[in-house]
Write a structure and sequence with these properties.
homodimer; alpha/beta; 10 helices; 8 strands
């Protein structure tokens, strides 16, 4: 694999996810056209993506869902184990520490960080907690590659900078705040639960108004 | 507001989210071109979206970030309060119940559901827990509009069907499983944390191989 564009890898991971669904639904064969309509790009893009990753298909023919899933696992190195850490041991960070899901899937949580010494000394966790100022040092020493970012606004960019100084490679940003990487080799993605709930709420409001124009939750005039 | 397409509402919510970032960064003015590059559609699409929602802009001129945010809040009814529930009180469901974030933002959690009577009787939670078979009844009685779905695979579609029977309007699916709505008036979106971590891991692998072809985590041959 060389010089594979980032969007190709992201779409390949989406394809992999669909194939997990297909496996549960016992679907055996899948075409690039079917994948394309579920992912929202053209079938030609799907074929090009798979070809860039080194998986060849015959135009018009269908892929074996099982074989395609196995090929993607290998080509994307999805079986690899990586150490991870949690930054910010508030409610969300504690939930992630306790959750155990990441450990089950090969992303062992090896450390937690918080700026509050009281939290570090009193919190009961399976994983060792460290003060925030040791972040770069511990990430480097423990060879931690992934971080789950769960800090308040004012600590978000500071934490990202220190993680990168320690050699982190990927950050999953659970905060509603935008953070920037100062290194091209560090990947950051964002999970914004509140945004998703807000969008559902807006969709409900819009469809309710379409049903009955008399029922408006707000005065619709502009401020 | 009438007949606004769903993608328009989803993009408007993304714009709203960007404006929250801009507010924190103290950015006062924003053009449709700037919004378009951050959202990944053309500036014409952004202007059309805003116009469909009832917000007019002058081509080439910039929007006041603060005014646009306020207008979106009103037009999308983002200030509305909705009752929510958690379905599946395992590790993730408990974390969401305890988290408190949704309550803070107007999506008060009014009930929890689980199929395990032992969980319902022994778990200590702020919110009242009910057995799964009462889901439709409680959702209807309590006027719950949103659900956070945190159940195992075999209970996912069953739970969605019962929530819809009770009149739910939006479901945030935290499971890695695909669920389907039997009603057009019910909106379902998915948060797949494992998928995000897996994608970060694949991006790291690909960039590492590009740096040094000698370091391959897996044998690259096809199965």
């Amino acid at each position: 694999m060389k010089q594979i564009p980032q969007p190709t890898i992201e779409r390949a991971c989406s394809i992999y996810n669909l194939l997990l669904d297909f496996e549960r639904e016992n679907i055996k064969l899948v075409s690039s056209a079917e994948l394309s309509s579920l992912i929202g790009v053209t079938a030609a893009v799907i074929r090009k993506d798979l070809s860039l990753i080194g998986i060849s298909g015959v135009s018009g023919a269908r892929y074996s869902a099982k074989k395609l899933k196995q090929d993607l696992e290998i080509r994307l190195a999805l079986g690899i184990k990586r150490k991870s850490c949690v930054v910010g041991i508030g409610k969300l960070g504690s939930a992630i520490l306790d959750f155990g899901l990441f450990n089950d899937y090969g992303f062992e949580i090896a450390a937690g960080f918080d700026s509050n010494m009281n939290t570090i000394e009193t919190k009961k966790t399976v994983v060792k907690l460290y003060p925030a100022f040791q972040m770069a040092e511990v990430v480097r020493r423990e060879k931690i590659e992934l971080a789950f970012l769960c800090v308040p606004a004012k600590a978000a960019q500071f934490s990202v900078d220190h993680l990168i100084d320690g050699g982190i490679r990927g950050i999953l940003n659970f905060t509603p705040f935008l953070v920037k990487s100062k290194s091209e080799d560090v990947f950051i993605s964002k999970i914004d639960v509140l945004k998703e709930v807000r969008t559902l709420s807006a969709l409900i409001s819009a469809s309710t108004e379409q049903d009955s124009n008399s029922r408006r939750p707000h005065n619709g005039t502009s401020l």
